[in-house]
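Look over what follows to help learners.
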Amino acid sequence: MACLISNGRTEQCKDSISGIQALYLINFGDYNPDPAPLGDVGYNETQVAITTGGTGYTSGTNVATTGGTGTGFTVNITATLGVITAVTVNNDGSNYVAGDVLTIAGGTGGTITITNYATVGYEDLITSIGGSISNIYKYELKGNNGFTTTMNTSRENGTTFFTQTITAELKRQDPVFHKQFKLLAYGRPHIVVRTNGNQFFLAGLVRGCDATAGSVESGVAYGDFNGYKITFEAMEEKPANFLDCTTEAGLVTLLGSPTLVTS
């Protein structure tokens, strides 16, 4: 079953920091959120290549394998005249590594090589996004800004979804951003969140992020906040996805090299 727990977790070191340092906005519709190859989103998934086609095979699903460093790897195979001609991963098991050679059951001599072994869940780490992303819009942040994903789950209804909430404070008012503030209220961009620990998350992968609250503040006293406060929310079937990058340059590459707009 898809809901069976597959990993434990140890107590972590106290070497992380919290908070977010930047948002990168992508206009809604600039990519197809379906998984590649039908859509534009590529995930960190286990991949295999046929090493030898073998003999005596018939097409089938959930076919067992032997060999390698792990356990539980099964595949779906297509065979023509007893020779394996196509293989897809059914269950990538556990504890395998790239380079493992596995023998496929049900015939003689059919083998595959694991070319990439995903150490995290299929939908949890995005490795590429294609589509027609021409620009991404960077908002630098410092101060009282945050990002939270909240689990909403009901045993009675049999449902689960995740609310992704971004709070941002953008200092100082100006006519140019006044227009953007209105557009943020009207639209629903996809938003990449960069944390102070240089982790990147994509909020609103499928449905985008709606502005649910905001204010333009001039304050009362000289030292009061002056600028824009805005809250974004996205409701998605999964928590906000990790992006497979640790730098801004890596993010641009992952998104297909759009123009980074900073002002």
